[in-house]
Amino acid sequence: MTSVSQVLTEARKYLGIRMGSSGHHNIVDTYNAHKPLALGYKVRYTDNWCDTFVSFVMIKLGATALTNTECGVQRHVALFSKLGIWIEDGTITPKPGDIIVYNWDDTSQPNDGFADHIGFVEKVSGGIITTIEGNKGVPGTVARRQISVGNGVIRGYARPRYTGESASAATTVENAGGISASAAKLAVDGYWGVQLTKALQKLYGTTQDGVVSSQYNWKNAGLTSGWQFVLPASAVKGSLLIAAIQRSLGVKADGILGPDTIKAMQRKAGTPVDGKISAQSQLVMYMQRCVNAGKRPF
Fold this sequence. Notes:
Blueprint (H helix, E strand, L loop, with lengths): L3 H9 L9 H12 L16 H11 L12 H11 L2 E2 L11 E4 L14 E9 L2 E9 L4 E8 L5 E5 L8 H9 L18 H11 L7 E4 L11 E3 L10 H10 L9 H11 L12 H11 L6
Parallel strand pairs: 7-8
Antiparallel strand pairs: 1-6, 2-3, 2-6, 3-4, 4-5
Helix pairs in contact: 2-3
C-alpha cells in the first residue's frame, strides 16, 4: 500500500526538471515503458506532460491501481470517476495527496468544463493550496503552484485510497457526486460507463452486470467501460437494457443504441439532438442526474 507521504516525497524529487532535459525524457520514457499505454498512445517529448508526470509518480511507487495511468487529463477524470475517487466540486478544501484538476477556460464555480491540467496537492494552509505539478509554465517545469481554495479554475479533485485514509474520504467523494464504495452516487461527468449501466439495469429491471452487450461501434466518445462492440455488423444482437429504454421511448426495441435511438433519448432529455453521445455528453449528464435521484431517465 502507498501513503500520502510516499507520493509527495516522490513528487518532490523531480522539482525543477524542465521540458527537454534528461530528467523530462526520463519521465516520458518511464511512462511509455509502463503497459498498457492509455489508448495505446506513446507520449512524445513535445507533448504536454502534466498528466504524464502524475502517472509517472504512481508508476515509480508501484501504485497505479490507485489512480490508473493516463496522459490526457479529461480521460483521467473519467477513470477517477470509475474508481470512485473523483470529487466533482472545485470549492472544497482539499487534503494533501489529493490530485487537483483544472479547467483554465472557466474562472468561476461550479466549474464543470473540459479538464486540461493536473497535479498533486502538497499542503493547504490559510486558505491557500500548494501543489506540485508537471509541465507548469513555459518552459514546462515540475514546480509548485499556490492557489486559493475554491478558485474558479479548479475543476475538482481525485482522492486516491492511500494507506491510512479514513472512512471520511469516501464520504466526501459520495457527497460531492462521485461513486462511493456502494455506488450510491454517480459523478455527473457525461461519460457512460459500467456504474451508470449497472444503475440503469437496476432501474429497468434487467441483468445487473454493468455490460451493454452486443453493440455496433458508432465511435461515440462518451461511451467508456462496459460496452461490448462486435464485428461484423450482422453479428450485433443488442442489449436487454437498450431494448428496455427503447420501449420506454416508444421506438423500435431492437436493443441496439444507434443514432435514431440516441436522438429519441436526446429529445426526451431536452438536450441537443444530433444522434451522438460525445465526450462530456449533456444527454449522459441528464441520465446520471436522474439515476442519482432514483428515477428512470426515459
